[in-house]
Amino acid sequence: LKGQLAIQLQAQPAQGGKLDGDCGMSFTQTIHCHPLNLTELPADAVTPYLQQFMVPALKGTLQVNLADVTWDRKTPPLASGHAEWQQAGVQIDPQTFGNYTAILSVGDEHNHQIQISSAPDANYQLDGSIKLQANGQYNTNLNLKPNQTNNAMVTTFLNSLLGVAQPDGSYLINRQGQLGAKAAATPPNPS
User: Fold this and answer.
1) Are 59 and 47 a contacting pair, CB within 8 Å?
2) 141: number of Cβ within 10 Å
3) Cα–Cα nearest to 67, from 105, 110, 118, 18
4) Using CA atoms, how far apart are residues 93 and 31, in angstroms rounded to an integer?
5) Which of 155, 152, 130, 126 is nearest to 141 (CA)?
6) Which of 58, 74, 118, 121 is the 20 to 30 A CA-CA neighbour of 188?
């Protein structure tokens, strides 16, 4: 047998936001969506997925527009498109940081390339890339630079998480590691 079961998806996840897309599942249980959009998602809904990276609870709104998603349910999904974190922030700081954009693309051997940038007026300038291999290996090459109006509490947090800042006040985030197979394939328990 060949083919796939197709559905037009429209949902409001329990965490908030709106999910819509045209998706299908093949007889091999591979899921394919073209497109898949998740809009108006409160950023704190993704906090459980970021706990292994010691990221504090987030605030703001996420807008995710994926042109194409394929997931074999064994490896991380392959996706291309873009995401925006609007009025970004962390819940330990009352100020918002600005708007940030991530552009996702799939390269050779099903590896992801994620280009990250901040809006020019963001309180924390962020630019660089993250590479994610199909086997869960990741490599980050990011530059984070607070502007002159940053919060002392956030600076202390950044120093504890990322080490001492460079002479120009920026932080280089060069990390590599392995996403856990369980974390890549199934969401964490939000309890």
Assistant:
1) no
2) 15
3) 105
4) 39
5) 130
6) 118
Amino acid at 127: D
**Residue 2 — pLDDT band, cuts 50, 70, 90?**
low
DSSP state, residue 11: E
Helices and strands of the chain, counted as H and E runs: 3, 10
Instruction: For residues 102 and 93, give the distance between their C-alpha atoms in angstroms, rounded to a whole number.
Output: 23
- Tens of pLDDT, residues 85-115: 999 988 877 788 899 999 999 987 778 899 9
Cα dihedral: 9, 12, 13, 15 (round 10): 160
What is the distance between the alpha carbons of residues 58 and 64, in angstroms, rounded to a whole number?
16
Condensed to tens digits (0 to 9), the pLDDT of residues 109-166 reads: 778 899 999 999 998 899 999 998 878 889 999 999 988 655 677 778 788 888 888 9
Give the pair of three-digit tokens for residue 84: 């925006």
Gap between the Cα atoms of 186 and 66, Å rounded:
19
Give Rg (Cα) of the chain: 18
pLDDT tier at 187, thresholds 50, 70, 90: very low
Query: What span, in angstroms and rounded, lies between the C-alpha atoms of 189 and 123?
Result: 32
In 3D space, the residue among 42, 89, 34 whose CA is nearest the CA of residue 63 turns out to be: 42
